[in-house]
Design a protein that fits this description.
Layout (H helix, E strand, L loop, with lengths): L4 H9 L4 H11 L9 H8 L3 H21 L3 H16 L3 E3 H7 L6 H10 L4 E3 L8 E3 L4 H19 L5 H11 L8 H10 L3 E3 L5 E3 L10 H12 L3 E2 H11 L12 H10 L3 E5 L2 E4 L9 H11 L6 H11 L4 H8 L5 E3 L5 E3 L3
Antiparallel strand pairs: 1-3, 2-3, 4-5, 6-8, 7-8, 9-10
Length: about 350
Amino acid sequence: MTFPYHSICSDLIAPLKPRTREILAMRFGLNEEAPKTLEAIGQEHQITRERVRQIVEEGVSVTQERVRSNQTSSLQEVYEYFSETFESVGYLKREDLFVETLNASSTVSHVVFLLSLHEEFHRHKETEELHSFWTNRREIPEKVPMVVREIYQLMKERGSSITLEEIKEVYLRIVRERHLSSHQTLSSVLEVTKVFAQGHDGRWGLREWPEVNPRGIREKAYIALKHTGRPLHFLQVARLIEDMQESWGKQKKRVLPQTVHNELIKDERFVLVGRGVYGLVEWGYRPGTVKDVMASIISKYGGSMTRAEIIEKTLEQRSVKESTILLNLQDKNLFARNEKGMYDIRRD
């Protein structure tokens, strides 16, 4: 459903004095320009900032009275539509997303102006933690910051992301009103926060955490590998990052395999386990060449290992041919074979 928000606003402010009408239009951005500050309007009209504020308040007050007394069907339909939309999204919505829901992105300023004129709707100003949002329930602006603080504290204590169910438990402990306990309301609360983000796995964490909101290719590659749970070729890692971009709230775009390869080489969390194939150190993979890995394995098991045992353990660490392992095992400067055919690290 669409409405001529521009013409509705023009009709509402038409009876105002010309200067009041112009200043109100400038302040709310009703004249096809971005909303202006009190300071900018004052300079343009050569009056003080305080005087601009007074004129805006007077203009809004007069227009609010017109809204209260206006019985035209078109205005009633607009406000009924606003109310119904809030009901459908859980009684609150981030300002930009509410306008988007109304399919009124080209008339954002006019929608915001109409909302500000009606006593049913309440706005929470933007803060460091929250985006600006609107609601048709007076109690919500007070409770949303409380919910955010509690969830933030839980995440900090855990040091890791949490499930939506855990968030819901915190939410319902604070917001006890039955009509505000819906999934839609909780989803809208999470939308207005700046400090939380949903990871690729559906869990929620602090936006500053790399595992939730990865910034560079290294972090994205780490999450891609961890998500898969097995070593991947850098070409596969690049494709997986591309596929996962939307889950991180990013626009899907091409990821260059060579860029991924370069980042994997530089980071000690990744181990080259085969030709172009990388695993994670935390999975137990040892850094180094095949020969380094073989020496490490023999030392770990106290020496005296059979050739078959060395091959088996090395293949757990590296995706190579058996012939490559046998070739490295012939290095007599590093490995020694006793009369029983067992291998150890050469000590002399």
